[in-house]
Amino acid sequence: MPVGTLATVKTLTPEHLAAAGAQMVLANTYHLHLQPGESIVQGAGGLHQFMGWQGPMLTDSGGFQVFSLSQLRTISEEGVIFRSPRDGRMINLTPERSIEIQNALGADVIMAFDECPPYPAERAAVEAATERTYRWLKRCVEAHRRPKEQALFGIVQGGVYLDLRQAAAKSLVELDLPGYAIGGVSVGEPPELIHEIVRATAPHLPLNKPRYLMGVGTYREMVQAIAAGVDLFDCVIPTRLGRHGAALVQGERWNLKNARFREDFTSLDESCPCYTCQTFSRAYLSHLIRARESLGYTLLSLHNVTELIGFTQKIRAAILSDRFTTEFAQWLDVSVPSSS
Amino acid sequence: MPVGTLATVKTLTPEHLAAAGAQMVLANTYHLHLQPGESIVQGAGGLHQFMGWQGPMLTDSGGFQVFSLSQLRTISEEGVIFRSPRDGRMINLTPERSIEIQNALGADVIMAFDECPPYPAERAAVEAATERTYRWLKRCVEAHRRPKEQALFGIVQGGVYLDLRQAAAKSLVELDLPGYAIGGVSVGEPPELIHEIVRATAPHLPLNKPRYLMGVGTYREMVQAIAAGVDLFDCVIPTRLGRHGAALVQGERWNLKNARFREDFTSLDESCPCYTCQTFSRAYLSHLIRARESLGYTLLSLHNVTELIGFTQKIRAAILSDRFTTEFAQWLDVSVPSSS
What is the C-alpha separation between A191 and A188, in angstroms, rounded? Predict the structure, then answer.
């Protein structure tokens, strides 16, 4: 899922997203609550209508953002009170409020409001957050007003403590939710730890329900997670790189400001079907990025999203024809350092 | 002509431009010489290939930019020496060099290198600049190496002195060029003076050659100029307004940050065929602009270019069916203040 934090996948139109092969798009409860506010999105007829994206959508619960972005916050059993970085007012986010906002936003998949412990964190703190996340989940299920239209996913926390992860997964599965997520990763821990967590957790989630690894979307981490049974990812990297003038090409990251691209009149990636690669040269992209022309960020983001989705499309095809472990062997070998 | 200063019409893809109905795009010799340099554009196969625009293109000569943007400059009969605002090096631009650069850039129409006097300016200074522009034009014709592929247009100067304008027009016409431009307007003079200049100059340019009014593209000024016989315009307004969060709607300028748009779920302009108007609401555009999301600038620029080109398409249709003066009467009435 490309990330459309504020109901826009940065620099791209919905037409671009469809052309890139995007199936599902993520948006952020936390950000949309602050700006423009869920009542405006609801007034427009919901997120799909508001942002012109007719495909499936998912909203996260705001839990991760409250814990990672808010400076002033007070956590209690009730929920979290934090100061809006936008206008300074105090905002109270509880499991019930998060679901109420997500019901108003109207995405197809909504996420439980969780407590996301930082990394590193003591076992006792992570255990308490994991148990609270479970209690909050039950309140989310209770508060959900549109269960037939919106699938509510639970989130497995547990930090780097694999037994906590497994216990959390088992408790969640007993609630028979429409889908499950592995949360609390990509918070600063080394990739090897993400792999360990995923390998220890995913097998405890049901085969017949979507398993979503939150905040992960690099090649190696996706391949490793898919090998462990994960189905769904979100990642800001393709658009963030694009906005910083970098391209994802065949697993590498290229900085288009690099001198070697100034007079390189070849396509970014001849084998890529995207508009950028089919129309423009590296020299032109390099020129746009050097000149800080916004079209450069759009064209690179379009390519990067196409590239990353193309990678998952190849994985899907390989799985269906039983060639996954051979075709993606280079990404499954954990001894090779991750290149993107 | 939408303006693509640095070989990009800001925030828009060539696909967007084609969808907006653009027929011809302008780029800037001055800016492209500084960045990325004409040799790179030439290496890509010329401007069309470089920026992915297959329709007609025009480059201006750099004259206007040298006189309006360069701080440190020395003007002589030979040409202009100025300090590059980009890297501080001294650059020598002469009629010969301007044409050489434009030959390398490869646009379909290229412009003579002219001396553009400021407004206001004494008659003696304007007269000297106009005469020098004529001598420079002859050097441009002499220096032009691709006359069969690139049409060189001459530029009528003369400031606000109508007799100088008429004399300049007559001298230019004797050179039998493929097209003629009225330059040195939109330099700060009131719109009424532009109209006076155009009405005094255009009739002295041949009917069977394109007449191009440089740097003008607002509704009233275009209609007035078309009434006087002008065929071609360029204007940065639609994209500049878009980048500043403003929309051109039916002749008005709307600031999308205005509170009245926050919860306005209607289309920007239902009658407009552009992707923006057919897909998104004013509330969504207002949200994007408030959030400084670059998609907002793209969507407004796309609409504004479509709107302005649509306006000229309506004018063309009205001329062809002999309804121009009745259908555009409101814009021809000079007593009404200009609204865009």
Answer: 9
Pair (B22, B48) in one structural domain: yes
A293 touches chain B (CB under 8 A): yes
Whether chain A has a CB inside 8 Å of the CB on B42: the answer is: no
Is B1 domain-assigned? Answer: no
In degrees rounded to 5, what are phi and psi of residue A18? -65, -45
**ipTM of the shown complex:** 0.96
Interface of A with B in 104-163 (CB under 8 A): none
CA distance B70 to chain A (A): 18
Residue B129: what residue type?
Answer: A
pLDDT digits (tens, 9 = 90+) for B19-44: 999 999 999 999 999 999 999 999 99
User: Are residues B71 and B197 part of one domain?
Assistant: yes
Contact across the interface for A43 and B265, Cβ inside 8 Å = yes
Q: Is there a single domain that holds both residue A322 and residue A262?
A: yes
The catalytic residue positions of A are 60, 234
Single residue among B185, B217, B235 that ends a domain in this structure: B235
pLDDT in tens, B186-209: 888 999 999 999 999 999 999 999
Together in a domain, A160 and A221:
yes
Residue tagged 């003066």 (tokens): B325
Write down the pTM of the prediction.
0.96
Structure tokens given for B135: 């001598």
Q: Cite the DSSP H helix spans in chain B.
A: 14-19, 29-34, 38-43, 47-51, 63-69, 95-105, 123-143, 162-174, 191-201, 219-227, 237-243, 275-279, 282-290, 294-320, 324-327, 329-332
B298 to chain A, any CB pair closer than 8 A? The answer is yes
Cβ pair B6:A52 closer than 8 A: no
Say whether B114 is catalytic.
no
CATH number of the CATH domain containing B142: 3.20.20.105
Residues in B touching A283 (Cβ below 8 Å): 36, 40, 43-44, 50
Rounded to an integer, what distance in angstroms lies between the CA atom of residue A12 and that of residue B250?
Answer: 27
How are strands ordered across the β-sheet holding A90-93?
A73-75, A80-83, A90-93
Range of the domain at A136: 14-235
The verdict on B222 and B140 lying in the same domain is: yes
Domain count of the fold of chain B: 2
Q: Of B235, B258, B274, which marks where a domain is finished?
A: B235
Average pLDDT over residues B2-27: 98
Based on the domain organization, do A104 and A211 belong to the same domain? yes
Q: Which of A50, A291, A297 is facing B294, going by the closest CB pair?
A: A297
Whether A190 maps to a domain, the answer reads yes
CA distance B26 to B181: 14
Catalytic residue among B108, B234, B264, B333: B234
Q: What is the pLDDT of residues A165-192, one digit of tens each?
A: 999 999 999 999 999 999 999 888 999 9
Q: Is residue A9 part of a domain?
A: no
Q: Find the closest chain B residue to A36 by CA distance.
A: B287
Helix axis angle, A123-143 relative to A162-174, nearest 10°?
A: 10
B37 contacts chain A (CB < 8 A): no
> Is A288 touching B (CB cutoff 8 A)?
yes
The most distant pair of C-alpha atoms in chain B lies apart, rounded to whole Å, by 60
CA A291 remoteness from chain centre: 30
| CA pair distance B134, B114, nearest whole angstrom | 8
What is the tens place of the pLDDT at every residue in A291-321? 999 999 999 999 999 999 999 999 999 999 9
Indicate whether B176 and B130 sit together in one domain.
Answer: yes
User: Above 80 in pLDDT, residue B338?
Assistant: no
Rounded CA separation A203/A188 (Å): 24
Contact A26, A234 (CB under 8 A): yes
Q: Does one domain contain both A165 and A244?
A: no
